Model the fold of this input.
Amino acid sequence: MADLATPFAVRTAATLRVPDVVKDGPLPLAEIAHRCRAVADPLGRVLRFLVHRGMFTEPEPDVFGPNDASNALRSDLVDGPCAWLDLDGAVGRADLAFVELVEQVRGHHPAYPAAFGRSFWEDLAHNPQLSDSFDTLMETKTQGIAPLVASAHDWSRYARIADVGGGKGVLIAEILRQHPQPRGVLVDLVGPARNATAYLQEQGVLERAEVVAASFFEPLPVRADAVVICDVLGDWDDEDAAQILRHCGQALEPDGRVLIVELLPDSDRMATFTEMDLRMMVYVGGRMRDLDRTQQVAAAGGLSVEDFTPLDNGYAIIECRCER
Ligand SMILES: C[S@@+](CC[C@H](N)C(=O)[O-])C[C@H]1O[C@@H](n2cnc3c(N)ncnc32)[C@H](O)[C@@H]1O
Done:
């Protein structure tokens, strides 16, 4: 449980795309190193270490080949783990901030800024490649939940739906696809907003959608009958989350609703939930919340929870009305 060599060796192989390079069969180490733009001697030592832990084969000295474990790390697998482990990608890099966990727990400093000199969001804003990699990871993640969210609520009752912190637009695109009447507006920071326009066009819903680049820490420059906010509140502490919700509530037309979509704790998924909670703490100083705590944050943001729809995947849609 406490070994660090194995996860770092696996992540190094994934980052260098060794599983892709050897997918068709064994290759000499020098050739693998050349194709991976790596140095043969240290790469060979990493691969040999992994062979003895069940990943890759070494059919003859200094020749390495694939096996099931290495194939599971190929970058062309839809929904595979490679992009999440890539040390050059937003989440693989953020995992490196765990070296500062003990100092965060001692109350000395938040982990990510201590590891990288600025916050996670500032890092993305300064590095388009990192920002794009994060949007792509969120795209994959949200593709898994969007169809459920889009079908579990009657979105057709709203004329205009804003997806705040909507990333690339996977959720709003799915809602618009399943419900032909409403129009959509996606609000996010400049980088994701740029990617969202292209994504919504690809999905064939851009004629019913617009994209607005804005921060949810300012009053939102949009009005809507429903504001959906999915997997965003966990990125923030209670005070920030309440401020975001206040701005969502203020953007509502009369009798509008804020729909919070979040993973909630349940007895079958506590390993995932607590892992997410730790990641949120380390990456962004956020936290995962149960329904009671979400309700308290909503109240602090001027919203009252009036309905709650649990989904099969552990997420829930928490429907709130604005207390004006
Ligand atoms: C965890 S992602 C969730 C994205 C999307 N809702 C989804 O479920 O795929 C959090 C989103 O919040 C956005 N975000 C972070 N800070 C923001 C801010 N100050 N204003 C608007 N959006 C912000 C990020 O760019 C990112 O798209």
